[in-house]
């Protein structure tokens, strides 16, 4: 039986380093893309547009990590309890 993913841990990891929660959930490509996107947003703070997108992508990453962990847990529960 696959291990359960903690939505809380996933969200906290993604809050600390965007994309880390996705990697914890097994979504490695998505996590790396979010990390690269945040690096680009960090560079874009020089021309001020990054200040808009940096918090938006941060918030998306945290919420997505939490919801993805919940979805993985539900899928695993249904798969192994039928």
Strands, helices and their partners?
Elements (H helix, E strand, L loop, with lengths): L6 H10 L3 H5 L3 H17 L5 H31 L2
Helix pairs in contact: 1-4, 3-4
Overview of the molecule:
- The radius of gyration is 14 Å and the shape is elongated.
- The protein has one domain.
- The two termini are 13 Å apart.
- The longest helix has 31 residues.
- Helices cover 77% and strands 0% of the residues.
- α1 packs antiparallel against α4 and α3 packs antiparallel against α4.
- It is mainly α and 82 residues long.
- The model has no long low-confidence stretch (mean pLDDT 91).
- The protein is built from four helices and no strands.
- This is TM2 domain-containing protein.
- Keywords: Membrane, Transmembrane, Transmembrane helix.
Characteristics of this structure?
single chain, 4 helices, transmembrane, TM2 domain-containing protein, membrane, mainly alpha, 77% helix
Short description:
With 82 residues, the chain is mostly helical. The protein contains 4 helices and no strands.
């Amino acid at each position: 039986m696959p291990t359960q993913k903690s939505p809380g841990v996933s969200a906290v990891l993604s809050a600390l380093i965007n994309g880390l929660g996705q990697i914890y959930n097994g979504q490695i490509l998505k996590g790396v893309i979010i990390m690269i996107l945040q690096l680009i947003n960090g560079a874009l703070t020089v021309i001020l547009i990054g200040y808009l997108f940096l918090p938006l992508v941060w918030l998306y990453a945290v919420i997505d990590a939490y919801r993805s962990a919940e979805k993985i847990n539900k899928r695993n529960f249904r798969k192994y309890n039928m």
